[in-house]
Design a protein that fits this description.
This is STAS domain-containing protein. The chain has 123 residues and is of the alpha/beta class. The chain contains four helices and five strands. The longest helix has 11 residues, at 38-48. The radius of gyration is 13 Å and the shape is globular. The N and C termini lie far apart (36 Å).
């Protein structure tokens, strides 16, 4: 089930970026987060989490579409073992992301921040 319908012309499937800010791994996600693209995000996370980051900030401000596969990946990351980095979601003022979190009832599950800078200020 895709909770958010695609609107307009589809853009590039997925663009990812990663950078370190001290003990924080910041991963930017732009484009469509669905069954075809979530493995790319998972692979990037697997590559960049070592050496271990204490916090993971996913910048979802550029997400243009998200399916249940995207939601499942976020939940899997949040449910990772205690030694995994704490998950923070940034870019949550993006209507696609905010609506997705509202529809799924997950707004209380994640640490939400309007921007990456807001998330980084906590650390």
């Amino acid at each position: 089930m895709d909770p958010l319908p695609r609107t307009g012309t589809p853009g590039p499937p997925l663009a990812l970026g990663a950078r370190r800010a001290g003990e924080v791994l910041v991963v930017s996600v732009a484009g469509e987060l669905d069954a075809a693209t979530t493995p790319e995000l998972q692979a990037l996370l697997d590559r960049h989490r070592l050496p271990a980051a204490r916090h993971l900030v996913l910048d979802l401000g550029g997400v243009t579409f998200a399916s249940s596969a995207g939601v499942n990946l976020l939940v899997e990351i949040a449910d990772a073992p205690a030694h995994a980095p704490a998950l923070h979601l940034a870019g949550t003022e993006n209507r696609v992301v905010s609506r997705l979190l509202e529809i799924t009832g997950l707004t209380g599950v994640f640490c939400l921040h309007p921007t990456v800078d807001d998330a980084l200020r906590e650390h």
